């Protein structure tokens, strides 16, 4: 099969790119879940844009400063400037396309406060903003049905990339188990986040980093992978997200003594301090024995907001509490703990979302990436809430436009389809026929625990070295996992095994990156190096997989345009 | 907690009919059904196959039938569906099964596309800002907009099980979202289509869809709103709308010999099919004849019930209200 452009991923980033291209070039989307099931739909709180409906003095400049400060100065300021400047028109465009937004008294898009933002600039649709945005784009994709081929329930196996040029992808039709190749002049990866490597996570089962690993295996570097955001309010034990909107609307965080403990850590912003700070504060309370009943959780209390506000603005959160813990937040506080939530790192790209392969920004021809799997770096070491739906929309669209331009003068490059298919078939067959007895479940469970507790909210050299050892040992065991399902049709056991392989591969990159970065910045916190070290570490990590499988690091400078680093206080 | 799972197993390549397989599992208290299925898959039988992704009731992947009715596995506490320590787990109804709990969703997506589910705004207005929509305007589409396309409603719809051409509850709920959107300019045309064959009037109001729906989308309510909108837009050129009109005309007696405070069963079918619809009327003849042969034909002249004047008053007040 050939298409001018193949987009892997049908979340906000992939779909927004696709609708720029549909009808203009031959474009296909490959997605392992139906588009409307993409994880963008789980986003609750909102999308940031200085549309200034609620606070008329809001501006993109303020949004820019908040984002840079939030990123702990690891964000590239030129990229951030693009994002915040394009934010208002991007959100308004979504409204024009039909997205259902909550409204203010004047009928404009409603806004509310969100952590780390100095103005109330989160545009929202109750507490299902991502769902609303995703469905609006999914609707648009149906409108373009005739000009957009969607391969739903196809699983990306590998990227075809040779001599610095992307030539297509190899994928598995989940329904039939067949391996197929799509040749393309341009490939866009929009495969989303990859939080599933952690025991407690807000991420969907699908978020396993398939895209980033496919790129990494072709020698493309991964940037800033050690920066993993832990969201302060995951439902205890399961990690399912209680949106920051709960704090945006005025929820309190309480420790076992019933104190609003944020007073100690961020007296001016309190509960609405950035996520990394709130998560560490929570974990500190827990570690020092001030969890609820001394246990591994604290409370978020919404009762004082009153029934009406909860029902009107946080209905889904209330329902989650009822469904998963049997607790109604109108009557009782919800038990919560930090949950792995967002991956700041990813495939390094330039402002047009073209993948760059080295410190000097050399582009990979025909290869693009956008959304959570990419790293433009607008979030640096810590993402502000509501900035990532924005990133996915803004950069998805930019990717679409840049690809449109790119393919005008690009050609289909040679691909040896038979060889690609045979290679993929062989590695699947190897997995399937392995006569061994290792349990994928044990490996996955052990990996997730290790990443959570040794490479989580608080890190140090000793824990990270243990984590590395475990990850390497698990990777070795992985080669001998047993798959009971030998069938071809809808073999989800095989798919989960492939995903586990990806989790293991990028976990090593996270751990090694965290071990190397001997400082604390944003979400990356080393108790043995608790200070930010601008002298040594004001730089981005680039991790490369060498031909022999070993991992090498290079570093590239952070781009600073308008705001010099200063201490981050809230 | 020990629980028994009777799970429907099927492999397109191996089986001709599904079979129930029993699993016995020790599950932690407070587990959702999805968590239990994963325990089975990960520790007992890797071949057990189902869809899932978000595990937080927002992606719509994990709908399946639990004890015969569609539910989201991730949103259902096991303890709520256990009967004598067991639960039956089957794939969604009204779909072709592919493997175990996985069904072929294509007809569902195809149905959705039939109603052109995207906003058709007035493109002639240049814009710099968002379109305004009042809070009341938003409220009219909010419920429908919560649909997660899980197909639970489709699974349990009684009409779909006898007529797969029916647009189905989710599709109709989606259609309501546009017909009632103050920003959409195409309500009339949409309603014309929805009023036609396999559309809103085919629904039998059994309410299964709304009962199974895990969100506020509640299709039957949306279908009722679409019917109301059809009538309000005077889209009368279809059997369903004519049927409604026939009731409205028959009871208060709009034409001589039609009403009397009761439904006139001779008038309603004729009016529903359309007085000028010759072939439709011919279709009625056999039914009419059969009823006649069995002595079941309704009386030719209307009976007048005692409280007829009151009923007339009600109808005229209703008319006022409609204005
Ligand atoms: C619970 C939760 C709440 C959030 N709330 C907010 C919020 O309020 N505001 C905010 O700004 N951000 C929020 N975020 C973050 C935000 O939702 C994500 O960063 C963003 O939606 C990512 O969009 P995306 O398009 O990059 O990827 P996704 O929407 O995750 O889409 C990824 C796509 O890639 C496809 N894919 C992946 N692997 C493969 C493969 N191997 N083969 C084929 N296809 C593949 C998937 O099928 C999917 O279509 C939240 C995140 C979570 C987890
Ligand atoms: S109420 Fe109508 S749409 Fe809903 S299940 Fe019954 S027949 Fe189907
Ligand atoms: S209407 Fe309800 S049951 Fe039907 S698909 Fe939507 S959410 Fe699911
Ligand atoms: S897994 Fe997404 S709705 Fe159940």
Brief descriptors of the model:
heterodimer; A: 570 residues; alpha/beta; Flavocytochrome C3, Chain A, domain 1; Methane Monooxygenase Hydroxylase, Chain G, domain 1; eight-stranded mixed β-sheet; four-stranded antiparallel β-sheet; 16 helices; B: 323 residues; alpha+beta; Ubiquitin-like (UB roll); Fumarate Reductase Iron-sulfur Protein, Chain B, domain 2; 3 domains; five-stranded mixed β-sheet; two-stranded antiparallel ribbon; 13 helices; 7 strands; 40% helix; binds flavin-adenine dinucleotide; binds iron/sulfur cluster; binds FE2/S2 (inorganic) cluster
Can you give me a brief rundown of this structure?
The complex is a heterodimer of chains A (570) and B (323). Chain A contains 16 helices and 20 strands. By secondary structure, chain A is of the alpha/beta class.
Helix content range of the residues of chain A, please? 25-40%
- The helix/strand order of chain B is EEHEEHEEEHHHHHHHHHHH
Radius of gyration of chain A: 22 Å
Strand percentage of chain A, roughly?
Answer: 15-25%
N-to-C span of chain B: 61 Å
Mean pLDDT of chain B: 90
The CATH superfamily of the domain at 417-538 in chain A is Fumarate reductase/succinate dehydrogenase flavoprotein-like, C-terminal domain
Bulk shape of chain B: globular
Helix content of chain B: 25-40%
Class of the largest domain in chain B, according to the CATH hierarchy? Mainly Alpha
**Low-confidence region ranges of chain B:** none
Q: Write down the oligomeric state.
A: heterodimer
Number of helices of chain B: 13
User: What is the CATH class designation of the domain at 417-538 in chain A?
Assistant: Mainly Alpha
Output the CATH topology of the domain at 417-538 in chain A: Methane Monooxygenase Hydroxylase, Chain G, domain 1
Q: Helical region count of chain A?
A: 16
| Strand line-up in the sheet with most strands of chain B | 2-1-5-3-4
Major beta sheet of chain A, specifics? 8 strands, mixed
């Amino acid at each position: 099969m050939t298409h001018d452009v193949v987009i892997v991923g049908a979340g906000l980033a992939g779909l927004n790119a696709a609708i720029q291209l549909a009808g203009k070039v031959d474009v296909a989307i490959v997605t392992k879940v139906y588009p409307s099931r993409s994880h963008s739909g789980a986003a609750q709180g909102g999308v940031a844009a200085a549309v200034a409906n609620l606070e008329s003095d809001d501006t993109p400049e303020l949004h820019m400063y908040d984002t840079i400060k939030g990123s702990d100065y690891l964000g590239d300021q030129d990229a951030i400037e693009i994002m915040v400047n394009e934010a208002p028109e991007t959100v308004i465009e979504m409204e024009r396309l039909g997205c259902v937004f909550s409204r203010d008294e004047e009928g404009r898009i409603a806004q509310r406060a969100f952590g780390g933002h100095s103005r109330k600039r989160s545009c929202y649709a109750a507490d299902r903003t991502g769902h609303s945005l995703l469905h609006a784009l999914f609707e648009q994709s149906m409108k373009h049905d005739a000009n957009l081929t969607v391969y739903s329930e196809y699983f990306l196996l590998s990227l075809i990339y040779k001599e610095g040029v992307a030539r297509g992808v190899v994928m598995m039709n989940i329904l039939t188990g067949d391996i197929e190749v799509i040749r393309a002049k341009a490939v866009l990866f929009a495969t989303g986040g990859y939080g599933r490597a952690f025991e407690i996570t807000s991420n969907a089962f699908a978020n396993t980093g398939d895209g980033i690993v496919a790129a990494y295996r072709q020698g493309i570097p991964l940037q800033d992978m050690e920066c993993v955001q832990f969201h302060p309010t995951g439902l205890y034990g399961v990690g399912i997200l209680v949106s920051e909107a709960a704090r945006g609307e005025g929820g309190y965080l309480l420790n076992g003594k019933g104190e609003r403990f944020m007073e100690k850590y961020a007296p001016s912003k309190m509960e609405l301090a950035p996520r990394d700070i709130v998560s560490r504060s929570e974990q500190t309370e827990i570690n020092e024995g001030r969890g609820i009943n001394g246990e591994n959780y604290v409370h978020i209390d919404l009762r004082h907001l009153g029934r009406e506000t909860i029902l009107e603005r946080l209905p889904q959160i209330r329902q989650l509490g009822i469904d998963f813990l049997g607790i109604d937040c109108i009557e009782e506080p919800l038990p919560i703990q930090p949950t792995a939530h967002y991956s700041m790192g990813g495939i390094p790209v330039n402002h047009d979302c073209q993948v760059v392969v080295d410190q000097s920004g050399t582009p990979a021809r025909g290869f693009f990436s956008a959304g959570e799997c990419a790293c433009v770096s607008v979030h640096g070491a810590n993402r502000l809430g509501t900035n990532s739906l924005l990133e996915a929309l803004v950069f998805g669209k930019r990717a679409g436009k840049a690809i449109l331009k790119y393919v005008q003068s690009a050609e289909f490059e040679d691909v040896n389809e038979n060889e690609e298919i045979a290679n993929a078939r062989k590695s699947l067959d190897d997995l399937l026929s392995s006569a061994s007895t290792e349990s994928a479940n044990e490996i996955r469970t052990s990996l997730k625990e290790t990443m959570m507790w040794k490479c989580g909210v608080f890190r140090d050299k000793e824990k990270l070295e243990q984590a590395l050892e475990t990850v390497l040992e698990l990777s070795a065991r992985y080669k001998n996992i047993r798959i009971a399902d030998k069938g071809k049709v809808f073999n989800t056991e095989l798919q989960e095994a492939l995903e586990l392989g990806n989790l293991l591969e990028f976990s090593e990159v996270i751990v090694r990156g965290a071990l190397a970065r001997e400082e604390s910045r944003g979400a990356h916190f080393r108790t043995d190096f608790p200070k930010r070290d601008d002298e040594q570490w004001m730089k981005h990590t680039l991790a490369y997989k060498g031909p022999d499988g070993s991992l090498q690091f290079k570093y590239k400078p952070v781009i600073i345009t308008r705001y010099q680093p200063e201490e981050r206080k809230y | 907690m020990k629980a028994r799972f009777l799970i429907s197993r099927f492999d397109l390549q191996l089986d001709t009919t599904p079979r129930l397989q029993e699993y016995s599992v020790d599950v932690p208290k407070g587990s959702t059904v999805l968590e239990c299925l994963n325990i089975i898959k990960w520790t007992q039988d890797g071949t057990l196959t189902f869809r899932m992704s978000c595990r937080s009731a927002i992606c719509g992947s994990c709908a399946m039938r639990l004890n015969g009715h569609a539910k989201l596995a991730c949103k259902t506490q096991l303890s709520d569906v256990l009967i004598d320590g067991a639960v039956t787990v089957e794939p969604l109804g009204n779909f072709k099964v592919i493997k175990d709990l996985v069904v072929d969703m294509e007809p569902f997506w195809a149905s959705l596309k039939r109603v052109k589910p995207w906003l058709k705004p007035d493109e002639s207005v240049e814009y710099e800002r968002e379109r305004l929509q009042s809070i009341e305007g938003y409220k009219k589409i909010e419920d429908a907009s919560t649909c997660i396309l899980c197909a639970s409603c489709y699974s349990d719809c009684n009409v779909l099980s006898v007529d797969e051409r029916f647009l189905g509850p989710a599709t109709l709920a989606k259609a309501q979202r546009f017909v009632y959107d103050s920003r959409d300019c195409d309500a009339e045309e949409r309603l014309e289509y929805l009023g036609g064959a396999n559309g809103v009037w085919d629904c039998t109001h059994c309410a299964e869809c709304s009962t199974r729906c895990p969100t506020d989308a509640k299709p039957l309510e949306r279908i009722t709103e679409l019917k109301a909108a059809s009538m309000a837009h005077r889209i009368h050129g279809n059997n369903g709308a004519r049927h409604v009109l026939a009731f409205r005309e028959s009871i208060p007696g709009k034409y001589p010999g039609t009403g009397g405070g009761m439904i006139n069963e001779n008038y309603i079918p004729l009016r529903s099919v359309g007085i000028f619809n010759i072939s439709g009327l011919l279709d009625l003849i056999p039914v009419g004849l059969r009823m006649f042969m069995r002595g079941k034909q309704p009386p030719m002249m209307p009976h007048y019930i005692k409280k007829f004047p009151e009923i007339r008053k009600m109808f005229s007040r209703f008319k006022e209200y409609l204005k």
